[in-house]
Amino acid sequence: MRLLATIRLAIRALRRNKMRSVLTMLGIIIGVGSVIAAVSITSGATKQVEDKVASLGQNAITVMSGNFTSGAMRGGWGSVTTLTVDDAAAIQQEVANVVGVSPEVRDRNQILANGLNWNTQVMGESPDYPAIRNWTMASGTIFTDQDVRSLAKVAVIGKTVADQLFPNQDPVGQTVRVRSIPFKIVGVLESKGFNLFGQDQDDTVVIPYTSHMRRVSTRTFVSSILVQAANSDVVSQVQADITSLLKSRHRSAEPDFTVRTQLELAQAATATTKVMSVLLAAIASVSLIVGGIGIMNIMLVSVTERTREIGIRMAVGAHAHDILVQFLVEAVTLSAFGGIVGIALGVGASLTIASATGWPTHTPISWVGLATVSSAIVGIISGFYPAWKASKLDPIDALRYE
């Protein structure tokens, strides 16, 4: 009951000087609001990047040829042609926790259909490709394993290709020519838009990799191998197992291939936005310190103004502890209420910016909790010294104070 009475007394004291209380809270409001707005904007950017990385594949691992050292000669991705269909088959059969494999062959070609032509990327893939890339079909179906074995002339196209060659038509069942070879369209992929590298993912034609290698590009090697791990927990182990297997198959001390995961790409892509998030939050946090100094200043003034009140309370039986708690409650109330208002303004500001500019925003609940706790801690720290000073006043001297 004594604590409740002290809280009521502290709130009554703050209400006596409404304007001063509001002005004191401004530092906390601006500080918390700035932190929340900055974190919401940078977190939104980070989430957008992560979503684009996720669109590249589900638990995907990419094996690329190149990235090797041989004597004085050094190379990079694609600098050698060492990956084969047999390598992909070995990964499928010998590496645990692999649920999908697609040997990839890539070329750009001028394609023709419906009296129109379009230059696009022609991909040779396996039927596992849509599942690995987490890519659904808008219409039709993906080609089958039988199509791969029989070098079938079938294709799946992206939305951009469909729009360019078959405007206002259903492409499924129609024919597209790749290097004068007719391929029957069996499906259309859902639109994915642009990826992290600014490439239109929908501007593609996907055919069986065997058809690409034997009919279109006439090559014996693959550009890369796309692998899907069973779940995110085993991605690193699958990556290590693939590296070990291919080193053994290629009998090379130095790997003539590169194995990369979507996690590595995500970490690289979001590194900058995470640094910016911390930097902006740190800068905005300075306002919290300024707000804390403002609270301490006002509380010291309040102690001076209410010296006689403190003396009277002590004279009628209040203990030093009661005075300490009263002034601490006043300081914490100022900072906590300022924090709540700041959170609301920060979220509102981030939503306004998102609406005006089209930038994505995302307010992490953890940061809202952190801002609330931080504002309360600022109130305790900044209010402790004035409260302690008030509790140490001599009652007789306080009653004499003018």
Brief overview:
The chain is of the alpha+beta class and 402 residues long.
Question: Can you lay out the helices and strands and say which pair or pack?
Answer:
Layout (H helix, E strand, L loop, with lengths): L1 H15 L1 H38 L4 E6 L3 E2 L2 E2 L10 H10 L3 E16 L2 E10 L3 H4 L4 E4 L4 H5 L4 E4 L1 H7 L9 E4 L2 E9 L14 E5 H8 L7 E6 L5 H16 L6 E5 H44 L1 H9 L4 H38 L7 H27 L3 H6 L2
Parallel strand pairs: 5-10, 7-9
Antiparallel strand pairs: 1-11, 1-12, 2-3, 4-5, 4-8, 4-11, 6-9, 7-10, 8-9
Helix pairs in contact: 1-11, 2-9, 2-11, 2-12, 3-8, 9-11, 9-12, 11-12
Fold and architecture overview:
- By secondary structure, this protein is of the alpha+beta class.
- It folds into two domains: 2-52 and 269-400, no CATH class; 104-229, no CATH class.
- The chain has 13 helices and twelve strands.
- The strands form two sheets. A six-stranded mixed beta barrel has the order 4-5-10-7-9-8. Strands 2-3 form a two-stranded antiparallel ribbon.
- Strand 2 (69-70) and strand 3 (73-74) form a beta hairpin.
- The longest helix has 44 residues, at 262-305.
- The chain is elongated, with a radius of gyration of 33 Å.
Approximate strand percentage: 15-25%
Mean of the pLDDT scores? 81
Please tell me how large the radius of gyration is: 33 Å
The total of beta strands comes to: 12
Shape: elongated
Estimate nothing, just give the exact number of structural domains.
2
Taking the sheet with the most strands, its summary is:
6 strands, mixed, barrel
